Every structure is written in structure tokens, then in C-alpha cells.
Queue: 2 jobs
Job 1
Amino acid sequence: MRVIQWVYLAVAFAFIYLPVASLVLFSLKDGNLPLPPFEGPTLRWYQEVLGDHQLMAALGNSLLVAVFSSLTACTLGFLAAYGLARHVLPGSVFMRGLLIAPMTVSYLIVGLGLLIVFNQLGIGLSLWTAGMGHVVINLPLCFAIIYASMGAQQQNAERAARDLGANEGRVITLVTIPMLAPAILAAFFLAMTLSWDEFVIAFLLTRFDVTLPVEIWSLLRSGLSPKTNAIGSLVFLGSVTVVLLLEIFLFGRRRT
Amino acid sequence: MTASISINGLHHSFGDFHALKDIDLSIDIGEYTVLLGPSGCGKTTLLSILGGFLVPSRGHVMIGDKDMTRVQPAKRPTTTMFQDYALFPHMTLKDNVAFGLRMRGLGKTDRHAKADQFLELVGLRQDGTKRPHELSGGQRQRVALARALAVNPDVLLLDEPLGALDLKLRRSMQDELKAIQREVGTTFVHVTHDQEEAMAIADRIVVMNAGRIEDQGPPDRVYRRPCSLFAANFMGEVNQIPAWRDQGGLETPLGPLPLSHDFGDTEQGVACIRPEQLTTETQEWSLGTATVIDSAFFGAHYRCHLRSDRAPNLTLVAYLPPNAEPKAGSSLPLYADPADVSLFTTPDTQEAIA
């Protein structure tokens, strides 16, 4: 029975990581097609990627969009959660539903809707519009994560702070945000990784400056090449780093 | 600092529910007052109104000589020690205690020096750099006390502060709270449902029930000569013996009660006597003989259930001396001093006469 458990584990991990492993493996291939048989290894594709100005610009754009859209989504999500958790508002159940509902709408529909709105308003497509699109899809997520972690414990601490003479601004900055820091950071990093490899909305809402997934897609149109594998590997490395940092500094600390 | 409190004509309702009705209460400077009552009696609502977390539907709250009825918590000379302590988990103990001083604009060095002083007061000076989760329940409670006292409030409000502690720790914290109150001189208002706790620490006990004050006064007076049947019951075990007017005197199923009081317009009521006031030695009021049903040893006394031979359907509780076990089935003569008896009319009116 023991053997079966280990085999199952191995198969499950292989299913998840085999595509990534082959992606990384063939990014090191010394040849023009990322297909077996493997030759090499070589780092020349990585050299080419890092020397490609357009790709590097797209990488920078992606980072910019990810950081700023996540900051915005987190801030708005926190304010909405604070308002709904701490005050009795008319129709608060309805408002909560309305805030979370966009999560169920596909990115394609959200992107198309925004495209139509921007066209109607005469707003040109840019990284700004893509960033707005990412705020739209990440706000519900940030709101849900932060709202779920607002409990009686913070509420009592906030009450104590007010009792000791703190005004609302200081209650939020000195008590609420520090106490909710794990949830806020988790929401921020999750929003960042989602924005980082989001393609559909970025594709629909950018024009001249594009994000990395859009750039990769245009590379793919000219056929498979180990170069795309190399970019993919770099992006994967970036995501893994963020997840590991999150695990070590955020969730690891909470467990102790 | 310290101040008196005066509450006039206070009413509070939550929707249709009247949590407080007609509350008039004055608390002297530096007094340790305990609001005592069962859950739902309005004691916590009254404390929240004193702290400024609720604005009463009607009536006024004066602290010192200022009307504080509508002043928000941050601007009141009161601080609250909350039931769950509500410490800031992300701050060290020193920063917790210094928080109120920080809000008052005190610099870091000054406020930390003052925080140390108050941590010293509660015996946690050496733990200033720890965080709340490293402390035991009793220690957290001390930090909450230090934090509330550090801003030098006129009035400290304590919301069931000892409820989460085990019995032994609770008793020792009671002594400590009382000692600290004596030292700082601040007016303390403390909410609890534990009458032993109330008697252990209070200068004045305010017994509340269903949104009203039933009785208030020093612990011994409220215990020995309660103003209402509810207060008599809530302050401890009591024997309730039916009594009625009979030819100028009082008659009970246990024999005539040598008391001159009558029941005013009504003909009958109850005579209340505490279990420790029943004795087997000759006193002015003879209750006849009673049979011991059972007895249990409590250290300071035997707690016995007794069936009166004159009224077999009346079960009495008596605390008898611990040196001789009252054997089940044995027969005892029972006496009491009429001066220890409190008389009340029927439970509806709950007026004390004696």
C-alpha cells in the first residue's frame, strides 16, 4: 500500500510539473526547434532573450502594470472591506455581492466590455487601460481575501485604540492595517501574479506598449523556438520566487 | 486623576428592547463600584454608555462636573479594560501600554519611561519587549490594566475583566485590582455577574436586574439587608419562608416570627434568612425541629438540606459548624435571630420592609 501512495504522489507531481520541466529543458537546447531529441545544453537562447530590447521592455511593462494595478486593487479592496465590515450600511449584502460578482465573469467578457467603454469614451489603449482592466479583475479577489480576515479581534482592538484617544486615521494605520498585514500582503501578491501572466485583457486593451504575455504571443505566431521556452522559464522562475518569498515570510511566520 | 460620576434619568433601548430604565446613580470620587447582575440585566450597556460607546436614548451622564453624554470615547476622561483585553498583537507590551500616551503626543522616550512605570505597577517590567501572544491570560490582563491606567484616566471601566481566568487566579487578581485601585486612586467601575467577586473588591455594589437598579450600597449592607427579593437571591443562598399577618404579629409555617413589621396593605410576603444565620443554639425565633436530608463538607461549614418537621414540604438550607457532621436522618432544633430576617412582599412588588 505504501508503494501505491508514493507512485500516486510521483504521478500527480509529474502531471503538474512535466510540462514546465520540458519547457525549461528545451530552453537549453542547442537547435532551432524546442522538440526532441535534446542537443546541447546551451545558454544562447537566454542570451538572446536578455539582449532583445522589445522583450525586455515588455517585461518591464508587465512588472509596472502588475505592481500598480495590484496596489490599486488592494487599496480599493481594503477600503471596501473596512467600510462593509465596520459600518452598518443599507443594502450591504447586495453591495458585497456586487463587489464579488465580477469574479464569475470571464476575462474575455470583462476585456470586451472595457474595450467598448474605452472606445465610446475616446480613451486610447495603453498600459493604463490594461492596468485598469487588471484592477477590475483583481479588486473582487482582494476584497474577498481582506474582508474574510476581518474579525472581531481587530474590531475590539480598534475600539480599544479609539478609547485610548486615537482618531479614525490612526486607528486604521496603527491598528487595522498592521493587524491585517498578512491578508493584505497575500491579496497583493496574488493579484500581482495574476496580473503578471494575464493575457486576454492585456491583449485586448494594449496597443503599442504591450505586456510580456502579449509579446510572447506575438513571438509564437512566427513559430516555435527555444527562445520562447527561455522566456517562459524566466517568467516561471520569477513566479516561483514570489511564491517562495510569500511562503517563507508570510505564511511561515503565521504558523509559529 | 479621579472624578465622580453622576447618572440621571438614564434610558436606553435597542429597538423595542428596553435595556436600561430609569437609572439614577452617583459614584463618589475614588470609589470602587461593581455593577452586578445576571446576563442581560443591562450592566454592560451601562458601562458602554459610561465609556462613550453608546449614546443613551434619554438621560445624562456627568463625569466630574462635565456632561459627557454625547462625547465620543477618545475625548472622555475614561478608559476601558475590555473583556477580551483587546491588546494590540503586533506591538510589544511597552508599545501597547504607551499607545494612549502616543495618541496624546508624548515622545518615544517619555512614553516608554511612563510605560515602564505602569508595567512595574502590574509586575511585568522585565517583559516590556515581549508580544501579547507570549503571555498567559493573567499577564495579558495585567497589560490591559496598565494600558488603560497609563493615560491617567479619571474613571477606569472594567468589563468582566476576570471572566476568562481560572478561579484561583481570579481570586488573586481581585486582591491585586483592589490594591492597585487604592494606589492610583482612580474611580473604578467594574462589571461582573459573580457576587463573590463583587463582595471581594467593591466599596459599593450596584445590583441590577432587567434594566433597573435593584439595590446599591456597601457589600455587607447589600448582603445582610438587601432592599429587594431579587438582590437577596442574587447576593447568595437564601431561605425563603412564606409569612403572613396574624393578629398584629407575623405567622410562618415554622411558627410565629417575633417581628413587629407588617406588610403594609398586603397580607403576606416572604421572610428571608441566609443559611449561615440558621443555628442550633437557642435564639429568639424558634423554627422548631428539622430532619437532616443530606450534608456536604465545605471546609468552613457543613452545607445541609433540612426538612422542617412543622412544614414537611419546606426544605431549608443551613450552614452548620464544621466541627460536628450533621448526620442524614438526625433531628436538629433550629433557631434564628429575628434581626437577621429580611421581609419582602410577594415577588411582584419586591419591596423591602424590614
Job 2
Amino acid sequence: MALGELERAVMGQLWAAPGPLTVREVHDRLERELAYTTVMTVLGRLAKKGVVRQERDGKAYRYAAASTREQLTASLMLDALGDVGDDRTAALVAFVDRVGPEEAATLRAALQTGPSTAPATEMPEMPQVPQPRVDGDERAPDS
Amino acid sequence: MASVWLAVLALVLAGPVPSALARARWPARVPRAAIVLWQAVALAAVLAAVGSALAAPEELLRALGPEQRTGTPLLIAVAVAATIAGLIVLRLAAVLVLLGVRTRRRRARHRDMVDLLDRAERSATVGSPGARAVLRVLDGAVPFAYCVPGRAPRVVVTEAALDTLAPEELRAVLAHEQAHLDARHDLVRESFVALHQAFPVLVRSRQARDAVGLLLEMLADDAARTRSSDTAMAGALEAFVVTGDTEIAARLERVRTLRCGDRRLATGIYLAAAAVVVVPTVAVVIPWLSAALPAAGLQ
């Protein structure tokens, strides 16, 4: 199975779970012929991407989604809309450049109060766009 | 006089010309040619600014008199000119590189997340929008479609969009996104964003950036119209329109009333674009060089 598909399946389990899971629990819930180490690798990759949090629980590690599915979706859409980060990056070419203020507000609300199926309370990692700066551009290494 | 003329030209190309272009109505009829003209104006403005910086010290020196023309003053003049011109070019290059790195990092991240959030069961039913691009479906109540350009491009639509759009309209939307990806519209857009970031005041390229952005959408609309139909494209746009969004409204109006292409107008615009770049060079820069080089004893 492709790695991307596996990552998505693992995230699906973490989002569906009532609390943080151990590698063994994720492995069992996936109901597929997979090596334990494969699941561990995938969880490691997801943690590196910042979408999964790793918590120490006695001897074992437990894994949880860093943000809810709804939060991540909302932040992704705001990122696509260029609603965050001003224009420090060239926008993703969007079919609809702007949604109305109402829709944007809905998305922002979803970002803050997504139903907390995961125990995460902090803001989701996405979108990890460069910090907005004013046009002074003091970081440009030219002058 | 060359430096003065070039400075005036740079200012005109940075101010009144973009304003007039942004207000004009004809670009909607020939979006591709209009984008080329925008690019030519931007390029000519930067070239004129650089040229003006290069010519100014030398001309000042030449005006002083023959005895001051050689030796150290000339060297200083050349150094000053090269520094100013170099700064302009460097600034633009630095912004381009920085912007490119940031944009690619952000896109890679975005692509990762879209892959994680994909509703695979929905995207499988729609199928792939093109040869290279992979379709991803996000859940969400806002009808929404966009593409993530790059080496592994993605076309993203929300479930709300899938539910709202008729099959033919969805085909038009996917063709629109595919057109963006195939023609690398993101690179055109990126260059104008860079220009805006590098010279926010000097070059009034917010206008340029926004106008070119809209023209790129129109270009993709036209590609989608030829691959599906005018009615399908109009229907798709209607599904996305929100009150107060003048841009979508303009595109919808255009799809409804305008037929694609106006070859004669387009040819005229291409010629104008070429002239904007070539004429200043021939009329100002060459005469200056032919005066300056003998004066410096280089010919």
C-alpha cells in the first residue's frame, strides 16, 4: 500500500479514537496486514509533519491527532484562500480567490472551536505559512 | 538626457500606465495578450529604472567638461551607477528567490495536508482531472475549488462543490484548474507578486498583480470553455459566486456575453508589448551609448 494512503488511514484512526493511542492500538485498529514497525514509522512521519502529537505514557508512547479533522480542513481552506499570511507567498492559484466574509468567518470559527474529539486544545499547526510582515521587508538579504 | 528620459519612462510605466491598463475593459477580450503586455510593461519599467541609474552619473560628468571626464571622477561615477543599478537588480532577485522558497515550502505542506484529509471514497468516484494532477476532496460546507501547482500538482474541491455542481459543470471546473496547472500560471502570478514585494511603492504593481490574477482566471475559464461548454462554465461560476465578489461577477458576465478570442486585437497588443520593450532601447539607450562610449575613450 502506498505510504500516503497509509498515512491517511492512520490519521483516520487517530481522529476516530476517543483518546491517544499506542502504536499497538493503531496497528490493531487498522485491520490490515501490516508490520508493527511500519505503523511506528508512519506515526513517526506524521509526528514530524506536526499533525500528530507524541505523549509519553509510562513506558510506551501514545499518539493523538494534533488538531481535529474540522480544524485542519478549515485552516487548509483559509490557507488556500490566502486569508492568512497576507501575500508573503504567491497564492495557490485558486478558482475562487475570495469567499465572502461570512464564509471566511465560518472557517475561522471552525478553526477555533472544532469539536474536540481529539484531546488537542492548542491551535493546529496548519497553516504553517511564513509570518506576515509589512512591506518593509527587513529580512531581505540585499541591502 | 538619456537618464532623465529613462527615469520619466520608468515612472510612467510604473504609475499611469498600470492604472490605465487596470481600468481598461478590452483586456477581458484578449487575456493572454493582455498578460503579455503587463509583463512587457513591468520588464520595461525595471529596465528603464536600471538604465536611468546607469546613465545618470556619466551624463552629469560629461556635462561638467572635458578635463573632468577622465580618471578618478569617471571611476566614481561608474561605481555609483553600477551600485544603484545593481541594488535594483539584486533586490528583485533576492525577493524572487525568497518568495520562491517560501511558496514552495508552503505548497509542499499544503499538499501533505490535502493528501491526509482527502475523502478518498469521493475523489475515487470523480476520477483524475488530468494526466498528472491528482484530485483531492475535502469535506466542508463551502463550495470551493483550487489547485496546488508544483511537481506533484493537486486539484482540490470540497464536498460542497461536488454536491452543488452538475457533472458537466464539475468537468468545467476541473478543466479550469488543469489549465492553470498545464500553463504554469502560478509562475506568472509569482513574478508579479515578487515585483510588488520588491518595489511596493515605486512600481504600483498591486494593480498589476491583481489585474494579472484576474486575467489568468479568465484565461483558464477560456480553456475550460473549449473543453466543456460556455453554459457549463457559467453554471460553475454561478455556484461559486458570492455577493459582493466583483471578480467572479466579472468572469461570469464575460463567459455569458463574450466569445473567446479577437485575433486582430490580440496581434495589436502583442505588437504594443514588443514596442514597450524595444522602442526605449532603440530611441534612448543606443544614442546614449554612442555618445558615452567615445566620451569615455572606449571606442
